[in-house]
């Protein structure tokens, strides 16, 4: 027979999936801070560079979509990468409303140094590669479902709660 936790039990920190994810994110932040120190990148800058290495030249808008960052967060991040000589931003010749971003030669050279970061981070998790793939897949499904639930809530409009 299954027991139903009482309402007070539901409000314990250790029962919150969001809190477990928050704690894991903070722990990863520390690991990445250490792993990225020699590259001179912050974690968000590292993600931007990964997206550019993977996709090549991107519009700022598309980069923001890939990273799930708004322009208020992405613009200063790109400005710092540009100041460091790792990326170049320029207006599109086809659509001057659009800004393109691409890596420089120095940004491309950094890619070779960054190859060790995922290996270092994976090793420091203590999980084997199959567990990491399973976790990534589960988190991907969770994100998709939360996005769908959020879109459904947005489409439904305000409720009388």
Your description of this structure?
Helices cover 66% and strands 7% of the residues. It has a domain at 15-115: Winged helix-like DNA-binding domain superfamily/Winged helix DNA-binding domain (Arc Repressor Mutant, subunit A, Orthogonal Bundle), CATH 1.10.10. The protein is mainly α and 161 residues long. Strands 1-3-2 form a 3-stranded antiparallel beta sheet. The chain is built from 8 helices and 3 strands; from the N terminus they run αααβααββααα. Helix 2 (17-36) crosses helix 7. The model has no long low-confidence stretch (mean pLDDT 91).
What's this model, at a glance?
By secondary structure, the chain is mainly α. Helices cover about 65% and strands about 5% of the residues.
Please give a handful of descriptors for the protein shown.
161 residues, mainly alpha, Arc Repressor Mutant, subunit A, 3-stranded antiparallel beta sheet, 8 helices, 3 strands
Architecture blueprint of SSEs:
Blueprint: H1 7-10, H2 17-36, H3 43-55, E1 58-59, H4 60-67, H5 71-83, E2 87-91, E3 99-103, H6 105-114, H7 116-125, H8 129-156
Antiparallel strand pairs: 1-3, 2-3
